[in-house]
Amino acid sequence: MSSPSSRERRPSLFEKGEASPNALQLAEQIASFHVNPKTGNIITDKVTIVGAGQVGMACAYAIMAQGVSHHLALVDMQEDKVKGEALDLEHSSAFVRGGLKVEASSTYDVTHSSSVCVVTAGARQREGESRLNLLQRNVEIFKGIIPELVKHSPDCILLIVSNPVDILTWVAWKLSGLPKERVIGSGTNLDSSRLRTFMSHRLVPVWSSMTACGVRLRDLNPKAGMKDDPENWGELHTQVVNGAYDVIKAKGYTSWAIGMSVAQVVRTLLRNERNTHVLSVHAKGLHGIDEDMYLALPTIAGPVGVQKIIALQLTKDEEAQLQKSAQTLWDTAKDLKL
Ligand SMILES: NC(=O)c1ccc[n+]([C@@H]2O[C@H](COP(=O)([O-])OP(=O)(O)OC[C@H]3O[C@@H](n4cnc5c(N)ncnc54)[C@H](O)[C@@H]3O)[C@@H](O)[C@H]2O)c1
């Protein structure tokens, strides 16, 4: 029997010459391929993020750390900054299962053939500036971004994060020429998480046993969330609405939670996980909405974009409020110069 020292060392693939550069390239490609189960087409997991600010980089980090994509392209008009961010991220490649490739530029060549393009670029409000003026400035920014993204990735899904997200998703749809199903906004996916977080603060001791027994909050407190609710669950609504403002007041911007939220949506889009997220989708014709507008609604989306918008069971009053929201958004959007 041969001793370990005398045992012939197995040559590595490189030494045996089995892995030519082409084979390595192929392995790299296979690692980042998924198959669209509906069409059978191969899609890559390449994701572009435009805007390498607080939100864009939190999205990039979450997408990378969760292994949602192994190939990122970052674009920002601040070339030095975006290149620095890309290097910093790519240096963590050894800690990421499957490795990581990060490209960065102030132009759009690096974005070619992306499956999902996330847009977080936006202008910050100037002192005394009206929201409409800020919005028009963001429209001008989008005019420089959206056609470039579509030119380099004509089959991509656009995922808009910049605020105001519903209106800018509509703007991106108009500027892109893509089918409405392929343009999606981050909607209120994050607000849903905020609601669950605030609920868990109240319910941690009993939550798991309640859900395990199939008990719902309304079974214990039929007035939960109503005006005369003795436990005042309605206060959660205020907490959710103020959630972003509380964070911005304390640290100047929001980043980590929106990054995680976007990573979750991108995973769903790439992997066809058929999860339901509350995303900004084209809402005309739903719940009596007449406006050509995007609104946040529960949506199932995948590699082809929006697959299904879940019909909500709304009271007349709730439906009227949704229609009013659509009207308010449209009143602003219709005056924009596209
Ligand atoms: N949808 C949501 O739930 C949600 C949550 C948080 C923030 N946001 C929005 O995300 C956006 C970004 O926020 P932030 O804190 O990262 O801002 P930020 O100022 O830190 O980053 C914006 C980045 O966009 C870049 N940029 C501006 N114009 C550009 C252009 N024409 N081309 C390429 N890059 C350009 C800037 O250089 C900057 O790096 C804001 O509109 C914010 O309101 C949305």
TrEMBL record:
Gene3D superfamilies on file: Lactate dehydrogenase/glycoside hydrolase, family 4, C-terminal, NAD(P)-binding Rossmann-like Domain
Keyword NAD: yes
Binding site for NAD(+): 51-56, 76, 138, 161-163
GO biological process: lactate metabolic process
Keyword flag Oxidoreductase: yes
Domain of life: Eukaryota
InterPro entries: L-lactate/malate_DH, Lactate/malate_DH_C, Lactate/malate_DH_N, Lactate_DH/Glyco_Ohase_4_C, NAD(P)-bd_dom_sf
Lactate/malate dehydrogenase C-terminal domain mapped to chain residues: 204-333
Keywords from the UniProt entry: NAD, Oxidoreductase
The Lactate/malate dehydrogenase N-terminal domain, residue ranges: 46-185
Entry's Gene Ontology molecular function annotations: L-lactate dehydrogenase (NAD+) activity
Xref: PANTHER family: L-2-HYDROXYCARBOXYLATE DEHYDROGENASE (NAD(P)(+)), L-LACTATE DEHYDROGENASE
Assigned protein family: Belongs to the LDH/MDH superfamily.
Protein name in the entry: L-lactate dehydrogenase
